[in-house]
Design brief:
alpha/beta, Aminopeptidase, 6-stranded mixed beta sheet, 6 helices, 32% helix, 13% strand
Length: 256
């Protein structure tokens, strides 16, 4: 199997009953916040069922725990607006939860730590057995910026890169793929960076990673959360990306 990982951190809508009690919003308000923040359908959009490698998906909604944020609020820029690994504010600044430190640690232990441990096991295993690994970090974003967002740019496809873990060759291949299919593409806009397992982050360039963000109006109705006809076109394009990344992962030379 190619040393590929599809990382899907924000597709889940699951809020376990035991964790629902933490939230201050009523049912419709919480559902609306989920619709605004969850990367709806990205598991199906990016083809988790046909991905040619391994898949790592968050088990719960990012409203419960956001596995792609730093757990240390001092390192996480979004913590300044109450949206670190454990959100306490909504996207428009209202109170979402009040979490005591002990409760926050319970949530991280239940969802965050196991997710990252699994990513580390995968990366270390692939580096040991194949000397390389490649992560596709799968996301989407709303057509209209959220109040917490810094960038107002809204390309159809946003690519996020890491200075150490995204080689110029990888970026060029993925950018050319999307541009060749007629998509408007921007790099590190509206969001920057890409998920890298902690065991490799900042240490081992043999772990390569690139983030792909799809603007939601291309594939879904953002008011209802339902897919529309564009879903097929976007998912078909992303299926083609699978082959590009598999070929890249199998190239004779690899970043070191």
């Amino acid at each position: 199997m190619p040393p590929l990982l599809l990382h899907v951190p924000h597709a889940s809508t699951t809020i376990p009953a035991a964790d629902r009690a933490d939230f201050l919003l009523d049912g419709p308000e919480l559902a609306a916040e989920g619709l605004r923040l969850v990367d709806a359908h990205t598991d199906a959009l990016f083809g988790t069922n046909v991905w040619p490698g391994d898949v790592l998906q968050a088990k719960v909604s990012r409203l419960v725990v956001d596995v792609e944020r730093f757990s240390d609020d001092a390192r996480e820029p979004c913590a300044r607006v109450g949206m670190g690994a454990t959100y306490i504010r909504t996207a428009d600044g209202r109170d979402l939860r009040r979490l005591a430190p002990a409760r926050r640690q319970e949530l991280l232990a239940a969802y965050y730590t196991p997710h990252h441990a699994e990513a580390d096991r995968w990366a270390c295993g692939r580096l040991e057995s194949q000397g390389r690994c490649l992560v596709l970090d799968a996301h989407s974003y709303p057509a209209v910026p959220l109040p917490t967002e810094v960038s107002s740019l809204r390309p159809e496809i946003g690519l996020g890169v890491d200075p150490l873990h995204t080689s110029a060759e990888l970026l060029a291949e993925v950018e050319a793929f999307f541009r060749g299919r007629g998509f408007q593409v921007a790099v590190d806009a509206p969001f920057t960076g890409s998920f890298v397992p902690n065991a490799c982050y900042g240490r081992d360039r043999r772990c390569q990673s690139i983030m792909v963000e799809v603007r939601r109006d291309l594939y879904m109705d953002e008011l209802t959360g339902g897919r529309h006809a564009g879903f097929v076109a976007v998912s078909t394009a992303l299926l083609g990306l699978h082959a590009v990344l598999a070929r890249f992962a199998g190239r004779p030379t690899w970043p070191t």
